[in-house]
Amino acid sequence: MSDSGPWLVVGLGNPGPTYAGNRHNVGAMVIDELARRTSSSLRTHKARAVAAQVRLGTGPGGVPGPSAVIAVPNCFMNESGGPVSALVRFFSVIPERVVVVHDELDLDEGTIRLKRGGGEGGHNGLRSISNSLGTKDYHRVRVGIGRPPGRMDAADYVLRDFAPTQRKELPFLLDEAADAVESLVTLGLLDAQQKVHAPR
Fold first, then answer.
1. 48: CATH
2. What is the Cα–Cα distance from 178 to 24, expressed in whole angstroms?
3. Is 25 known to sit in a ligand binding site?
4. CA angle 95-79-135, nearest 5°?
5. Which of the listed residues 21, 34, 125, 175 has the most CB atoms within 10 Å of its CB?
6. Which residues contact 39 (CB under 8 A, 6 or more apart)?
7. Is 24 a catalytic residue?
8. Which structural domain, as residue segments, surrounds residue 119?
9. What are the tens digits of pLDDT across the range 134-147?
């Protein structure tokens, strides 16, 4: 891939310990995994976020991957756009190099999909980001959490913690989602899609 400046990888969630284990916060959990992999600490940034500058993944020949900013907004999900657009301006990131990691009701639990652009599927965090950036043409790493059981409201479902059986599988899901982010920034979207979307 040609180098067009840094990537910005944002994981969505709600702030504070009350929400930390919620399904809606799986994007923020993926950023924590990327921080762990890169031995970096997320520090408070004036853009109403915690962020770290890192190199993600490994390029050809084992060289460190591209430079990136990993971040989690310090605000509620439906206000995510303000911090994201502030980070884009601060670090001079082009929209095509913005990656948003988020929970996805329309994918089976444990499924990960990559795409660029498209609708928000009722996701308030994505809607806020699209409005603030003035474009939908950014990358998404969609982490499947499945549909709510029975007649449970979707809003209640995403704001509940993962079930005990799901929590056992959660480290594997976060690991795969972090791999997907690294593949996206090192290989580009099409090659990363072939790798991540391949049947297992």
1. 3.40.50.1470
2. 17
3. no
4. 25
5. 125
6. none
7. yes
8. 7-196
9. 999 999 999 999 99
2 assigned to some structural domain: no
Q: Please count the structural domains in the chain.
A: 1
Give the DSSP H or E segment for 144.
strand 139-144
Q: In 3-state terms, what secondary structure has residue 124?
A: helix
Write the pLDDT tens digit of every residue in 97-137: 999 999 999 999 999 999 999 988 889 999 999 999 999 99
Q: Annotation-wise, does 131 bind a ligand? A: no
* Residues listed for the chain: 200
pTM for this entry: 0.95
Let me know how many helices (H) and strands (E) the chain has, helices first: 6, 7
Would you put residue 195 in left (φ > 0), alpha (ψ -120 to 50) or beta?
A: alpha
Tokens of 114: 């990559």
Is 14 annotated as contributing to ligand binding?
Answer: no
Q: Which residue of the set 24, 102, 123, 139 is catalytic?
A: 24
| Interval 34-73: pLDDT, tens | 999 999 999 999 999 999 999 999 877 888 899 999 999 9
